[in-house]
Specification:
Layout: H1 5-9, E1 12-17, H2 23-35, E2 39-44, H3 46-49, H4 54-61, H5 72-77, H6 80-86, E3 89-95, H7 97-105, H8 111-118, E4 123-127, H9 131-135, H10 137-148, E5 152-153, E6 157-160, E7 166-170, H11 174-196, E8 203-208, E9 213-216, E10 219-221, H12 228-239, E11 243-248, E12 260-263, H13 267-280, E13 284-287, E14 294-296, E15 315-317, H14 321-326, E16 333-340, H15 344-354, E17 359-364, E18 376-384, E19 389-398, H16 399-418
Parallel strand pairs: 1-2, 1-3, 3-4, 4-5, 8-11, 8-13, 11-12, 13-16, 16-17
Antiparallel strand pairs: 6-7, 9-10, 14-15, 17-18, 18-19
Helix pairs in contact: 2-4, 2-11, 6-8, 7-10, 12-16
Bound molecules: cytidine-5'-monophosphate.
Cytidine-5'-monophosphate binds next to α14 and β16.
Family: In the N-terminal section; belongs to the HFCD (homo-oligomeric flavin containing Cys decarboxylase) superfamily. In the C-terminal section; belongs to the PPC synthetase family.
Keywords: Decarboxylase, Flavoprotein, FMN, Ligase, Lyase, Magnesium, Metal-binding, Multifunctional enzyme
Region (Phosphopantothenoylcysteine decarboxylase): 1-203
């Protein structure tokens, strides 16, 4: 599954490290959080510094580590109130029994306990402690208080402990923790998109990639489509609040987070899945797939043996998926793509009319720098209703940016359609 890193790269995390042997895991945690694009600042208690040095965290986070509350020099940089306001999340990992007790009582006698009181960001604690200390009534009482105060407690795992005991108290692995943080921000972003996104509540179906038309059990006819544009559009539609189904031919791309993917091979299978999706309900149909125009008339049951200097394979026309969907009674808003090598605008506008589409996005695949296997694209978009045709040029940009511009164009067109005349 692929995640949209733009969601996490704008987020700021304070990772607070307290005294405990699990502090060594926090060094890896910084790396994993940075891998997701988070901006990470590290705060350390005095106890933490007995286990691992601030220099380690400074090198990994790329920022000076915050250790003191009443340090004039540190306060003249980013003071504790500023730091508390800066954060989108305060993650305490490992959280010692001592810091849980301080949080629960509202003490403010060091930097971390003060930050806890001063921030209105969500607070997560990942307790890591000896199993006896974890089970102690005072610790459990403090945890209960913290949960009541709205703190998210990441339960420790069970297993062998550094002190030789076996039981509850191990800090979860850094990979798990970083993943949970990343998922949290994605869910938060999704909730906003579902309410306010450009395609909030819309059901979008996207065809993508090439199709494979079998010749015999081991051979097929296909094309060079990588599916990148369709996958980028699926991610952009999801980010805009839509419910997205991607019907894709064989490609080597990860499914974007949140997108439902149906894997197909031939054009006939792609059409079948598209019709089924139409039955289930579809508001916008986007055809980015490079569907093979022809398929083999009679697929050989067994591998065709080498014989003679020539081999003739008879081809028959495949159904036009986007045109078929556009003819249905329950017709969604229809978006097609056109890849041309010449007379681009003329051919694209012709296809818009011939296939009865609402919008067509076309690009010049004769240009080596854009199109098919490239990561960049430049497009011209035509919209049409029964009265007029409109043109919009999209600048050369990454397929992600083009996908975003297309989402805006689709949203504009849909909203225009819904305006009373
Ligand atoms: O006719 P042409 O292949 O150039 O049209 C391109 C557009 O039509 C694309 O949106 C493509 O996904 C769609 N198409 C289709 N089924 C076909 C051929 C093309 O949906 N059999």
């Amino acid at each position: 599954m692929s995640f949209d890193l733009s969601v996490t790269s704008s987020k700021k995390i304070i990772l607070a490290v307290t005294g405990g042997i699990a502090a060594y895991k926090s060094a890896i945690l910084v790396r994993r959080l940075k891998d997701f694009g988070f901006d990470v600042r590290v705060v350390m208690t005095r106890g933490a510094q007995a286990f691992i040095t601030p220099l380690t965290f400074q090198a990994l986070s790329g920022h000076p580590v915050h250790t003191e509350l009443l340090d004039a020099e540190a306060e003249s940089g980013m003071g504790h109130i500023e730091l508390a306001r800066w954060a989108d999340l305060l993650l305490v990992a490992p959280a010692s029994c001592d810091i849980l007790a301080k949080f629960a009582c509202g003490l403010a006698d060091d930097l971390l306990s003060t930050l806890y009181l001063a921030t209105n960001a969500p607070v997560w604690v990942a307790p890591a402690t000896n199993q006896q200390m974890w089970a102690a009534p005072a610790t459990q009482r403090n945890l209960k208080t913290l949960v009541e105060d709205g703190v998210h407690v990441i339960m420790p795992a069970s297993g062998s402990q550094a002190c030789g005991d076996v039981g509850l108290g191990r800090m979860p692995e850094p990979e798990d923790l970083a993943y949970q943080v990343m998922e949290y921000f994605h869910k938060q972003q999704r909730a906003i998109a579902e309410k306010f996104g450009l395609l909030a509540g819309k059901r979008v179906v996207i065809t993508a990639g090439p199709t494979r038309e079998a010749i015999d059990p081991v051979r097929y006819i296909s094309n060079h489509s990588t599916g990148k544009m369709g996958f980028a559009l699926a991610a952009a539609c999801y980010a805009a609040g839509a419910k997205v189904t991607l019907i894709s031919g064989p490609v080597s791309l990860d499914t974007p987070n949140g997108v439902k993917r149906l894997k197909v091979s031939s054009a006939i299978q792609m059409l079948d899945e598209s019709m089924q999706m139409l039955d289930k309900g579809c508001d916008i149909f986007i055809a980015t797939a490079a569907v093979a125009d022809y398929r083999v008339a009679e697929v050989a049951e067994h591998k065709i043996k080498k014989a003679g200097d020539e081999l003739a394979v008879s081809l028959i026309k495949n159904p036009d998926i986007v045109a078929t969907i556009a003819q249905q009674e329950k017709r969604p808003f229809m978006v097609g793509f056109a890849a041309e090598t010449r007379n681009i605008e003329e051919y694209a506008a012709g296809k818009l009319v011939a296939k009865k589409l609402d919008m067509i996005a076309c690009n010049d695949v004769s240009r080596a720098d854009i199109g098919f296997a490239s990561d960049e694209n430049a497009m011209i978009v035509f919209f049409a209703d029964q009265y007029h045709m409109e043109k919009r040029e999209l600048e050369k940009a990454s397929k992600q940016d083009i996908a975003q511009q297309l989402v805006e164009a689709i949203s504009d067109a849909i909203n225009q359609e819904q305006q009373p005349v």
